[in-house]
Structure formats: structure tokens, C-alpha cells
Amino acid sequence: MLNYAVNLLIVEEKAVECQLPNFFINPDFKAFRVFRLDIFALVKKSDIRVLNISMRLLSLKPYPIQKTLCPQCGEKTVFSSEVFFQGIHVLKDCHCQNCDLDFWETLPTGHTIDKPLVVNKANTELIGIVEGNEWLAQALIRSLDFSESESIYIQRDIRRSSKKIILLNCLDDCFGHVFNKLWNACFVEDGYEIVVLIPSQCAWMVPDEVAEIWTVPIEVSEIGKGIPGLHQQLKGLLEQYEEVFLHPAFVHLDHLKIPFDKILKTSRFPLPEFLVRKPKIGFVLREDRFWLNSSFFEFLFLVSKKFKVFELFRPIFLWRQKQLVVTCAKLLEKSFPGIELYVSGLGNSGTYPKRIEDLRVDQILSEKEQERISVYAETHLIIGVHGSHLLVPTGLAAGYININPRYKTAHWVEDTILPYRDRMQQFLGRKLDQKSSPSLIVHHIKSVFENFEYVWRRLNEAHSEK
Fold first, then answer.
1. What are the pLDDT digits (tens) for 298-323?
2. Domain count, the chain
3. Which H, E and C letters describe the chain, residue by residue?
4. Structural domain boundaries enclosing 399
5. Is the whole-model pTM more than 0.90?
């Protein structure tokens, strides 16, 4: 019995004939899936058995013919009989017989779980209003404009065989999104096996419990440009299974419930040893988002991105960021003699003083990541600008200082994770403004080390009294 994720209707005696707003019942199906709880009232209880299940899996095989609205003429009886695997998204392939419009509509997964995107197939133009999701909509449009001349081939790692699978699509052009979606793979249900579709760069993180890993040999940053041959390959692979569900790939799961050791293959920093170990501080950097600490530089950065002259100014931003990191390192060395310092992240332009270990890479490779992972797990505090691939480092280090650009305020909760349930969450997880100076950063670091023993003792006393 699947008790995990579907709104499932099972016909017990006869086919159910009714008009549902977003669903068409094929009388040949004995089991079919629906996506809205409010349609249950339209079906007689005597004809069906309803299983109340917590999460919304989507059936791909058998694929229930779905009913939707035409975004052009408003026709209410537009049906979709197949899907299109674009890469980041899975799209319903729709045709309106009233106005002859062919269009795609995203299935409710990942970042389109609440609001679907609709695209005209003839000219790959967006249809409708996408307020708040412009970044997602434009990325989808760009990804549909690619050539199928050079196909990329999926590589399969089969650990266990099964005829009933749940496909978890972790393809994305943002590493943090890939990581967030992969959290869903930590939960396996009886009778169904998880199959993870993921960029090859990130395959090392797939939990051992997963039955199959389907890796796509393409860099994460390139996925948004489209994946030639992906649709036909996936269509062929899914034919080998009796039953296939598409996972919703939730991107905002409760991180306190995720066993990160299954994903990162290592244990995080042991807090009882915080004051025993030699202080170790890491700066996680990237070369398209910077710590600038200046209204002028922040304005210049945003303008250069808007008018597509970023590459012209990149050396200036890199110089400014390095200046701030080195200044911060000097202040830390005065306060903590013998402190260990390092820089990490994606992009290795320029050099840092030898006393600052350089762990930066120009690309993420599965076989190399475990080395950096072990360093993060030995780090007291990680320092980085929002969006600098901080999810993994902050999931392993004891704590972090997150420097937040104001244009990223809406994404405040997406960049860091600390699995603490008490006040350590606020004590060791600090978010500062983009204009924070090296002296302010060091002030917070010193405060953490000076007050850790007191906070730790008080919190443990409170726990012992419960």
C-alpha cells in the first residue's frame, strides 16, 4: 500500500462518470491520480475508495488524460495525453481543438508546484502573467530554444531492480536547488523505489537507499540551456516499468528532519569540541556574487549585470572582495594566534596569501568534493555572501556568518542550514547586511568564541531539566 504521496482514487465496482475541473477519467483505468482534494465531492462515495495520503505524487505511467483550460481562448475541455521532459521541468503537452493552440504547461513540481508556467509551442513565448516568477519563466523559455543535434546520454547506476518507481527529478541549473530537491530522496516508501535523475557533478550526494541513479553528464550551470535528447531517452527508460510516479520535488522541506549524513556522507562539526579544537574559519566565495561592503560597488555590480557589462567590471569586484577577506584574516590572526584560515568556492581567479589555504575549484567534480566536505566539517564558522553555495558548508560547520545583499532579502531562508532546535540556531547562525565591514565580521566571530561556553552550559542545563 502506497501511504506516502498520492491522492488516489480506486474504482471498486464500475467506472466513475463525472466532470472534474482538472482531470479526465479514462474508464479503462482501475487506478488513477488526481491533483486536487476539492474534486472529491463530485464523485459519489459509494463508487470509490479514497486514500488520504500526505503528498502529491504525479502518475506518469499510466498517464491519466488531464483536462485543463486553454490559455488563449478559454476553452475548458483541453486534454493532455503525454508529457515533455524539458530538464528542470516536466511539461504537459496540450492541444486546444477549439483555437488550434499547441502549448506546454508545467506540472506541479519544484519551483512551479504552486503556479504553472504556460508556453506557446509554436514560438516558445510565455502565455499569461508570471508576477514573482519572472526569473523562472525566462529560464524555461531559454531552455526550450536548443538544437537536438548532439544528444547527451543518461548513465544508469542500478542498485536494486523494481517495476514500480518514483522518479525524483533533481536537474537544475542552480546547485542549491539540486541539493534541496535531493533531500526528498531520504524518504523511501514500501513497495516503491526511488530513482534519482541528477547532474553527474552531484551524483556523489545521492543517498544509498536510492534504487537507481540516472546521471546526466552536463555541468549544473549548463542545464538551463536545455538538454538535447533527454526527452526521448527518459521516455524509453520509463517504458521498462509497470508504474511510474513523478515526485513533486519539494524545495522547502524542514531541514531539521533531513538526515544530512546520508547525503553528505560525513558527520557535521561536533559541538562539544567547539572550544577544544583550534579555531578554523572558512570563507566561501564565488566569482559572480561578491562581498563588496560599499554602496558604490553594490550599485556598480547591479548596473553591470543589468546592462550586460559584468565581465568588464569583474576584476574590480574580485579585487575588492579579496581586499576584504585579507583584511578580515589579519584581524582574526591578531585575536586568535594560530588560527586556521581558508578560502573555498567555485572560481579560482587570483591568489591569496600563503597563510590562507586555497581550496577553490574551477569546476565541481564528484571525486574531489569529499575532500572539501571533510574540511567544512572541521570548521568553526563559515563566512560567505548569500548565494555562494553555502548550503553544504553551513550544513557541516558549527556555524556561519551569512552576508546578505538587499536584493536577496526575499530569499532569506534559502541559503543556509543549521540543524539546531534550540537557541544555538540564532547564536551560531548569524545574518549580516551587505555593508558589513571586516571589523564587524570579526566582532561577531570573537563574540561566538567568547560566549560559547556560557550558552552551551545554559542550554544543556535546560535540556537536563526536561
1. 999 999 999 999 999 999 999 999 99
2. 1
3. CCCCCCEEEEECCCCCCCCECCECCCCCCCEEEECCHHHHHHCCCCCEEEECCCCCCEEEECCCCEEECCCCCCCCCEEEEEEEECCCCEEEEEECCCCCCEEEEECCCHHHCCCCCEEECCCCEEECCCCCCHHHHHHHHHHCCCCCCCCCCCEEEECCCCCEEEEEECCCCCHHHHHHHHHHHHCCCCCCEEEEEEEHHHHHHCCCCCCEEEEECCCHHHHHHCCCCHHHHHHHHHCCCCEEEECCCCCCCCHHHCCHHHHHCCCCCCHHHCCCCCCEEEEEEECCCCCCCCHHHHHHHHHHHHCCCHHHHHHHHHHHHHHHHHHHHHHHHHHCCCCEEEEEEECCCCCCCCCEEECCECCCCHHHHHHHHHHHCCCCEEEEECCCCCHHHHHHCCEEEEEECHHHHHHCCCCCCCCCCCCHHHHHEEEEECCCCHHHHHHHHHHHHHHHHHHHHHHHHHHHHC
4. 266-465
5. no
